[in-house]
């Protein structure tokens, strides 16, 4: 084979080119278009007429934005913490079950994964039925049997946020569980055995042996789940629509409303960039963690 | 042959075709999930529609419209209709379609929600349909409809084929007399709550229905949403006072116990039907079309006890109600496609409304069919004297968004004046950027 015909001499671009083209078309082009729109006065009703920073000024001076960011922060933080905790808990359960050869572990994994494949809108609709406050509503009807409730799951602003978080956790736990399950599978069992021989209790083995080994997974999972949660709006749209008032209107839903109800494409683009910036910050953190691990 | 005879015959023949003959393979081939007409027709027009008629879940409705479409297409040999279904997320669907139309990628013809018509007009994407409608037909439209669908030159930019209005439903066994004022409505709600019911139900969640159902209260208080230029003014001057008054009415219903707190989470009309069917409510603010749904939901003896009346106002002589409905507009500059689009609009406005019992927007149709002369429909046509459409301006969807936020805020204990000022400021800011 001649040197010119040897593909390995062409450098990485030959191999990376197709992937970069596809990724560029799918991810980079929309992002660049959002950047372009953010510096215009474009609306859904007319094409841009000029280049300006007005959309940035409008977003920064929007009196509703601090409230939206606060709601987004609460929703994201609570979701990430609970998703991680539940995902780890279920992964430990399944992993332990696997090691002991208990029957039904595959079914348990499938059950958790079933929620993951439900589309966001359907997830919102399902939980809207569960949280219905009608006298014949799902969860309240069950609570009434034991003499509790009724609970204002969706009409009370604080509880509506809790309901949105529960719906998000129900759907997203599977992703965290998969991450932790894979990580647990990769751990060296010899360390556990050694700790056991040294007389460490189950709690000590978890806190001092298992958790330190999962540090990288916990951090990486947190970042991935954060990005995923920041982009969640479809389930909230179906569950509460962002209400009552703006009690559950997260940044992604606010962006959606700005574009599709206010027809404000440029301000929507700025909000989308803000969302992308928050996600990129999380991704940068992810990259830093990986570098540290290496 | 008069319009009356023509309408009756068309609807009858469609019903007969649909009901008496099993769908043949030939007909199934002529109507698919994405096409009406012969697959090999040389000409085609794209039409984006909702899923409540040609593609309805109800087989009878579906079959009736299939027959109506095929009958209509006989006037257009060599044509087929490429159908595109809209999702139920009306706001997003209408905004996306507008964006596509602006980019020249929209459908040739489409169903446009009356609340979005202003945006389509502002974007200049609608083609006049005057060639298919006489001046007499246009003049026969209800004034509020005619104003919304014609421009200053008298061009018919879309055909508003049915309307609806918001009414008060009540179980006369619990609430014998129709409340005419807000005070009476609150008293009736409290009385029904004491009798073990939920009280007066209404939409208070984040969706368009909340805004439209509440607007009658605002208009009855003397408020206007926009000025002559289309700028939002609902939170300024006398309008502000009306806005606060109407918001306070809703807030008082909840704080007094006349309505349950859960109204803040109601985001669809089906909740009212479910509550009526479960016997948990005796009063709700719903859409005019729900009367027939109620008939299908309740046992005959229970349905007989339910009546509709006009929305109560701040005083007995001050009433208003929001009028909605759908339009059909052409977005193609091909005259033949515009003509076909207009024929579809006439199909819906005439035999289509007869088949579905929807309220037409022109007086001639009321005279043309007995369907529209039932006591309930006659009552609706009387209520429509107080009917007001949503303003046909592009900023309306954002105004509605702010109204929903304001209602949610006051139902959660917020201050009506603060909610009004925030809504006005947000709507004004959005208006300046449009």
Automatic annotation (TrEMBL), chain A:
Residue ranges annotated for the ABC transmembrane type-1 domain, each copy included: 69-286
GO biological process, alphabetically ordered: transmembrane transport
Principal localisation: membrane
Keyword Kinase: no
InterPro entries: MetI-like, MetI-like_sf
Stored SUPFAM superfamilies: MalF N-terminal region-like, MetI-like
GO cellular component: plasma membrane
Domain of life: Bacteria
Membrane-protein topology: Multi-pass membrane protein
Transmembrane in keyword set: yes
Positions of transmembrane segments: 12-32, 68-94, 106-130, 136-154, 161-183, 269-289
Pfam families reported in the protein's UniProt record: BPD_transp_1
UniProt keywords, alphabetically: Cell membrane, Membrane, Transmembrane, Transmembrane helix, Transport
Cell compartment(s), UniProt: Cell membrane
Family classification: Belongs to the binding-protein-dependent transport system permease family.
Protein name in UniProt: ABC transporter permease
Lineage: Bacteria, Pseudomonadati, Pseudomonadota, Alphaproteobacteria, Rhodobacterales
């Amino acid at each position: 084979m001649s040197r010119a015909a040897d593909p390995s001499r062409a450098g990485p671009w030959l191999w990376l080119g197709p992937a970069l083209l596809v990724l560029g078309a799918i991810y980079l082009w929309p992002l660049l278009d959002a950047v372009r729109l953010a510096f215009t006065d474009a609306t859904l009703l007319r094409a841009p007429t000029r280049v300006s920073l007005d959309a940035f000024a409008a977003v920064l001076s929007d009196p509703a934005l601090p409230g939206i960011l606060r709601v987004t922060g609460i929703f994201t933080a609570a979701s990430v913490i609970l998703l991680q905790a539940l995902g780890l808990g279920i992964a430990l359960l399944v992993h332990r079950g696997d090691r002991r050869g208990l029957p039904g572990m595959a079914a348990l994994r499938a059950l958790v994964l079933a929620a993951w494949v439900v589309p966001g809108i359907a997830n919102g609709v399902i939980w809207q039925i569960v949280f219905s406050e009608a006298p014949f509503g799902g969860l309240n009807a069950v609570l009434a049997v034991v003499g509790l409730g009724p609970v204002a799951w969706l009409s009370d602003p604080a509880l509506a946020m809790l309901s949105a978080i529960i719906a998000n956790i129900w759907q997203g736990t599977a992703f965290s569980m998969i991450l932790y399950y894979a990580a647990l599978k990769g751990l060296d069992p010899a360390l556990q055995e050694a700790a056991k021989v040294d007389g460490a209790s189950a709690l000590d083995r978890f806190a001092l042996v298992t958790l330190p080994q999962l540090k990288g997974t916990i951090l990486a999972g947190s970042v991935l789940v954060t990005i995923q949660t920041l982009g969640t709006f479809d389930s909230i749209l179906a569950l509460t629509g962002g209400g009552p008032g703006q009690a559950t209107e997260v940044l992604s839903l606010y962006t959606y409303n700005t574009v599709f109800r206010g027809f404000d494409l440029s301000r929507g683009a700025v909000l989308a960039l803000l969302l992308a910036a928050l996600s990129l910050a999380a991704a940068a953190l992810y990259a830093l963690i990986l570098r540290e691990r290496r | 042959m008069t319009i009356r005879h023509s309408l009756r015959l068309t609807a009858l023949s469609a019903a007969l075709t649909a009901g008496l003959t099993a769908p043949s393979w030939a007909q199934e081939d002529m109507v698919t999930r994405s096409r009406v007409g012969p697959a090999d027709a040389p000409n085609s027009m794209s039409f984006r529609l909702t899923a409540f008629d040609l593609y309805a879940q109800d087989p009878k409705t579906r079959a009736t419209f299939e027959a109506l479409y095929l009958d209509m297409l006989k006037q257009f040999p060599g044509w087929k209709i490429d159908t595109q279904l809209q999702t139920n997320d009306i706001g997003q669907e209408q905004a996306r379609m507008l964006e596509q139309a602006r980019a020249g990628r929209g459908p040739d013809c489409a169903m446009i929600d009356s609340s979005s018509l202003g945006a389509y007009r502002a974007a200049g994407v609608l083609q006049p349909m005057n060639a298919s409608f006489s001046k007499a037909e246009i003049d026969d439209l209800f004034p509020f409809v005619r104003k919304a669908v014609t421009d200053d030159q008298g061009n018919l930019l879309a055909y508003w084929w049915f309307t609806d209005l918001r009414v008060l439903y009540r179980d006369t066994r619990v609430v014998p007399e129709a409340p005419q004022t807000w005070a009476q409505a609150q008293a009736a709600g409290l009385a029904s709550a004491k009798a073990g019911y939920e009280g007066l139900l209404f939409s208070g969640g984040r969706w368009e229905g909340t805004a439209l159902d509440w607007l009658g209260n605002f208009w009855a208080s003397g408020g206007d949403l926009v000025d002559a230029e289309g700028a939002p003014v609902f939170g300024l001057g006398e309008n502000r006072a009306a806005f606060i008054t109407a918001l306070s009415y809703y807030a008082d219903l909840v704080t007094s116990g006349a309505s349950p707190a859960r109204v803040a989470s109601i985001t669809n009309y089906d909740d009212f039907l479910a509550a009526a069917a479960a016997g948990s409510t005796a009063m709700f603010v719903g859409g005019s079309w729900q009367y027939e749904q109620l008939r299908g939901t309740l046992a005959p003896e229970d349905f007989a006890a339910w009546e509709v009346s006009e929305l109560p106002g701040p005083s007995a002589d001050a009433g208003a109600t929001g009028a909605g409905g759908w339009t059909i507009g052409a977005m193609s500059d091909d005259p033949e496609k515009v003509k076909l689009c207009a024929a579809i609009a006439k199909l819906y406005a005439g035999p289509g409304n007869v088949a579905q019992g929807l309220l037409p927007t022109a007086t001639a149709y009321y005279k043309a069919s007995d369907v529209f002369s039932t006591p309930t429909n006659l009552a609706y046509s009387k209520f429509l004297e107080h009917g007001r459409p949503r303003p046909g301006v592009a900023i309306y969807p954002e105004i509605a968004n702010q109204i929903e936020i304001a209602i949610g805020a006051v139902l959660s204990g917020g201050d009506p004046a603060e909610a009004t000022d925030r809504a006005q400021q947000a709507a004004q800011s959005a208006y300046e950027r449009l």
